[in-house]
Amino acid sequence: MREVVCELCPRKCVIPEGGAGDCRVRVNIGGKLLASTYGRPSAMHIDPMEKKPLYHFHPGSPVFSIATAGCNLHCLNCQNWQLSQSGGEEIEEIFNADPVDLIALARDQGCESIAYTYSDPVIFYEYVYDSSILAHEAGMQNVFITAGYINTEPLRRLCKVIDATNTDLKAFDDGFYRKTTGATLQPVLDALMTFREEGVWLEVTNLLIPTLNDDLSMIRRMAKWIRSELGEGTPLHFSRFHPMYRMRNLPPTPGETLDRARQEAMDAGLKYVYIGNISGHKGNSTYCPVDGTLLIKREGFMISEYNLTSDGRCPTCNEPVPGVWQ
Amino acid sequence: MISMLQAIRHWHSSDYRLVGLLSLTLVVIALFLVGQHEAEMTGSSWRRIDMEIFQERLDSGKLSAHEAEWFHVAKPAELQLRKPGGTP
């Protein structure tokens, strides 16, 4: 038996011949590890950038979004579980789109960027990396929507070809990570810092689940950590939970919980704190942190008002707003 | 409640054996389910997959034989880290 050790994520799976990693898609055949979903996405959609969510990165632009089967997390509340908790040999729909085809397809659809998203793109790393190089050569952007459960060395290499990320920080509590996702907290914090150090545009999402991770003192600690380690200008998205997959026993997050979390994070010093999954909420829009001017008004995933200057400043007080606006 | 107590008072030794067997079965099922859940949640190091279907899909091009990066052949010390069995 020629076992191999996968070095991609913190699990470091030791995989015997004929077995797969915990992610289900990295398979040991004859002592060689295969990235079995390379060029074989199972989901392809055109989404608005706001759906990722990325609010400070090319707002309002369409992004060609792909995912393959598999995931290295096993969240009880996964919203894409049919995709993420299946292996390549289990899933019905598989498209054939090698990196060259993918770039051409995205271009044909009028997209200037590609999102690696839905499941966790960490597990189709090689496909992301090769596609991202070609996308850059074609003048396109790459966005990486992830839970950040990846080892530092492969992540640093990937950062060279990634332009933006929205990374889930699912809770500021290792116990929550272990019980609800099957992962651990510290590697995610390391990944967030690596993105920041490598200059990738970074936004953070925290899905608030009633009773599990909505404690205000934990939210305060998380916001303070983001401010001190990632910067006060890092956009933070509090997202509303909906009962899903193996977590149907809890109700959707009340609006007041999201409001309180947003206020707590802003009190901790974060300048751009958003509320997601509630259409029409005022916390879905961008305001100048200095004078409160409405800068970008969003309704759902659509932008209904855009008042930033062309170089990304408040039109009233000239305060620069961090982001990639051009 | 009273009729239940009366029934227990009239149990024969074979009834005790049956109840014991049933209890043991329930304990075994509970241990299996807890073990499976824990393996799934903490990462079991590797998973069994249906190799026949996997190979079919590789041969038909539905899946890719692209070699992954970021792996190495396991050293003897690392083999001890592998949890036995694997999760389906």
TrEMBL record, chain A:
<dbReference type="InterPro" id="IPR034457">
    <property type="entry name" value="Organic_radical-activating"/>
</dbReference>
<keyword id="KW-0479">Metal-binding</keyword>
<keyword id="KW-0408">Iron</keyword>
<dbReference type="GO" id="GO:0006006">
    <property type="term" value="P:glucose metabolic process"/>
</dbReference>
<keyword id="KW-0004">4Fe-4S</keyword>
<feature type="domain" description="Radical SAM core">
    <location>
        <begin position="56"/>
        <end position="277"/>
    </location>
</feature>
<keyword id="KW-0313">Glucose metabolism</keyword>
<feature type="binding site">
    <location>
        <position position="78"/>
    </location>
    <ligand>
        <name>[4Fe-4S] cluster</name>
    </ligand>
</feature>
<keyword id="KW-0411">Iron-sulfur</keyword>
<dbReference type="InterPro" id="IPR016431">
    <property type="entry name" value="Pyrv-formate_lyase-activ_prd"/>
</dbReference>
<feature type="binding site">
    <location>
        <position position="71"/>
    </location>
    <ligand>
        <name>[4Fe-4S] cluster</name>
    </ligand>
</feature>
<dbReference type="Pfam" id="PF04055">
    <property type="entry name" value="Radical_SAM"/>
</dbReference>
<dbReference type="InterPro" id="IPR007197">
    <property type="entry name" value="rSAM"/>
</dbReference>
<keyword id="KW-0119">Carbohydrate metabolism</keyword>
<dbReference type="InterPro" id="IPR058240">
    <property type="entry name" value="rSAM_sf"/>
</dbReference>
<protein>
    <submittedName>
        <fullName>AmmeMemoRadiSam system radical SAM enzyme</fullName>
    </submittedName>
</protein>
<feature type="binding site">
    <location>
        <position position="75"/>
    </location>
    <ligand>
        <name>[4Fe-4S] cluster</name>
    </ligand>
</feature>
<dbReference type="InterPro" id="IPR027596">
    <property type="entry name" value="AmmeMemoSam_rS"/>
</dbReference>
<dbReference type="InterPro" id="IPR013785">
    <property type="entry name" value="Aldolase_TIM"/>
</dbReference>
<dbReference type="GO" id="GO:0046872">
    <property type="term" value="F:metal ion binding"/>
</dbReference>
<keyword id="KW-0949">S-adenosyl-L-methionine</keyword>
<dbReference type="GO" id="GO:0003824">
    <property type="term" value="F:catalytic activity"/>
</dbReference>
Automatic annotation (TrEMBL), chain B:
<protein>
    <submittedName>
        <fullName>Uncharacterized protein</fullName>
    </submittedName>
</protein>
